TrEMBL record:
Signal peptide (residue range): none
InterPro entries: TROVE2, TROVE_dom, TROVE_dom_sf, vWA_Ro60, vWFA_dom_sf
Positions of the TROVE domain: 1-357
Protein source organism: Mytilus galloprovincialis
Pfam families listed in its UniProt record: TROVE, vWA_Ro60
GO cellular component, one term: cytoplasm
Name of the protein: 60 kDa SS-A/Ro ribonucleoprotein
Length: 526
């Protein structure tokens, strides 16, 4: 019994660390939710485990999830780490703060962690020696001692997040530089100035850092008639858009310089903006650069770019407009680039790792599935679900597919199919609307005696089912002797719907859908 309770506690803690909740629901978009209040309500398992003497287990799991990249968002991990860092159990607190550098891999993470610890303090004064030491160690880590320009780049790119600046943290932590390299950087970050005459003239790292600072400072001072100088600085010092004066980000020449230094995700995300500035002329060097990146399977794999990311970019780019922001953006479409995005979509499948589980993918056949996904720009629920079906057919070795309408119809999806072919196979032109009972996929699997490790149901709002839905899953597990079969319900067009049992650790309800949600689903199945 104790072993079962320990496993349930571990699974509930995992729920919070990965989903940000312990009730088996993952919200893709939490903009309308008070995140801190939500975290506080759903992280009580952490306090209980610490009070039961399991604080070290909590910290160990936080570090494991973080280092393995299992969580789609860092917020829950950082909140959990902050709870442990501010608790009254000494060993747990010290263990949590020892993990700070490993888990807070960017300044944004560090700022958010500090924000969460300030919430945990509840009126107590100061940080305490242990937290000051941990933050000081972050700035003095070996990676920065051996490469001070790396700390400079981070310090100038991520100046302020979550209400804190580097200057705030350095002062609050009483950071004492361990090397003259760190001292040089902190002097600049805190005071906005430096004096290289106090350092060894022969130190190449100091010279390199000094040149970078000069480049950043010169970029800050650039005006509208200094575009040539600015683009030269961007190329010479690999400056990012955060280093550029906001009023100069409307310059096509600035974007031409920036695009050559962009990592893959940023390049794909900014294709519309790059086209808006009319940089992608046919046969131009800029077009060639885009094509070389989109069509290089190895680059796609190294960037770990998900097929759904490419699908979203493809759907948006070929329309020539964006509706995500309050200010819609339009651009001329380069058809060669649009075609390359389609090819890139299929090439990016190689970056996905199989779960090696037996999986049933069920797709809602109702007309509601033509609605756009809440968090995928200009992609319908049906298109996204079909893309997942195609992805699973290519990545997994044992996956079945069904279309759910008044009845359940098996669909043959083959690895050599393309998106258009699979979309046609899931065509609902001859199907009736969805039955009121969303338990049909489980009943079909039970009647067919199909053994699955996971059943994933892509639907719209997940309003149908209730007790029948959960009872059908219970019966399926019981009759086929599969007590731990996972069930995932993806409410693709919903903002706040759930029909799964929150007490069942083998059930997950995804509200909304995007590439991070797909990662959550995969990790849950795995």
């Amino acid at each position: 019994m104790a072993g079962q309770n320990n496993e349930k506690d571990r699974q509930r803690l995992l729920r919070f660390l990965i989903y940000g909740r312990d009730d088996g629901r993952y919200f893709v978009n939490k903009r309308r939710v008070n995140v801190v209040r939500d975290f506080s309500q759903h992280s009580r398992i952490i306090d209980r485990m610490i009070s039961e003497g399991k604080g070290m287990d909590v910290v160990g799991l936080i570090k494991e999830v973080s280092m393995c990249g299992r969580a789609p968002k860092q917020g829950p991990l950082l909140y959990a780490l902050a709870v442990c860092a501010r608790c009254n159990d000494g060993p747990t607190k010290r263990a949590a703060l020892r993990c700070l550098t490993d888990i807070c891999r960017t300044p944004t993470h560090l700022f958010q962690f500090v924000k969460f610890t300030s919430i945990q303090r509840e009126g107590s004064r100061g940080w305490g020696r242990a937290q000051r030491k941990a933050v000081s160690e972050w700035y003095n880590q070996a990676a920065f001692q051996n490469n001070p320009k790396k700390l400079l780049r981070l310090g100038t790119k991520y100046k302020k997040r979550h209400g804190y600046t580097h200057r705030d943290l350095i002062r609050l932590a009483h950071v004492k530089p361990k090397t003259h390299h760190i001292k040089f950087v902190i002097q600049y970050i805190v005071k906005g100035m430096y004096n290289s005459s106090n350092f060894d003239d022969s130190d190449s790292m100091i010279k390199d850092a000094e040149l970078f600072i000069n480049g950043v400072e010169q970029a800050k001072k650039c005006k509208g008639n200094d575009i040539d100088d600015l683009t030269s600085l961007i190329r010479r010092y690999n400056l990012t858009r955060e280093h550029i004066p906001t009023n100069l980000l409307n310059s096509p020449d600035v974007w031409r310089a920036l695009m050559y230094e962009m990592p893959m995700h940023a390049l794909v995300r900014n294709l519309g903006r790059i086209s808006k500035h009319e940089l992608l002329h046919p046969h131009s060097p800029e077009e060639q650069h885009i094509l070389e990146n989109l069509l290089d399977e190895e680059k796609l794999r190294c960037a770990k770019i998900h097929p759904l990311t490419i699908l979203t970019a493809w759907n948006s780019y070929k329309l020539g407009s964006s509706i995500r922001n309050e200010s819609p953006m339009q651009w001329p479409v380069n058809q060669t680039v649009a075609d390359a995005l389609e090819t890139s979509f299929y090439k990016s499948f190689s970056s996905c790792v199989a779960t090696n589980k037996r999986i049933l993918i069920a797709i809602d056949g109702s007309e509601e599935m033509i609605k756009p996904v809440v968090d995928l720009q200009q992609v319908s629920a049906r298109s996204a679900a079909v893309a997942v079906a195609l992805l699973m057919s290519r990545v997994e070795s044992s996956t079945d597919f069904v279309l759910v309408s008044d009845s359940v119809s098996p669909v043959d999806v083959h690895p050599y199919d393309n998106l258009e072919t699979v979309s046609f196979k899931f065509s609902t032109s001859e199907c009736a609307c969805l039955s009121d009972d969303a338990s049909n996929p489980m009943e079909w699997a039970m009647t067919s005696s199909k053994q699955y490790d996971a059943i994933v149901f892509f639907t719209t709002c997940a309003t149908n089912g209730g007790n029948n839905f959960n009872e059908a899953m219970r019966q399926y597990r019981s009759r086929l002797g599969l007590p731990s079969t996972r069930l995932v319900v993806v409410a693709m067009t919903s903002n706040n719907n759930s029909i799964t049992n929150p007490d069942d650790i083998y059930m997950l309800n995804v509200v909304g859908f995007d590439t991070k949600a797909m990662k959550v689903i995969t990790e849950f199945i795995r």
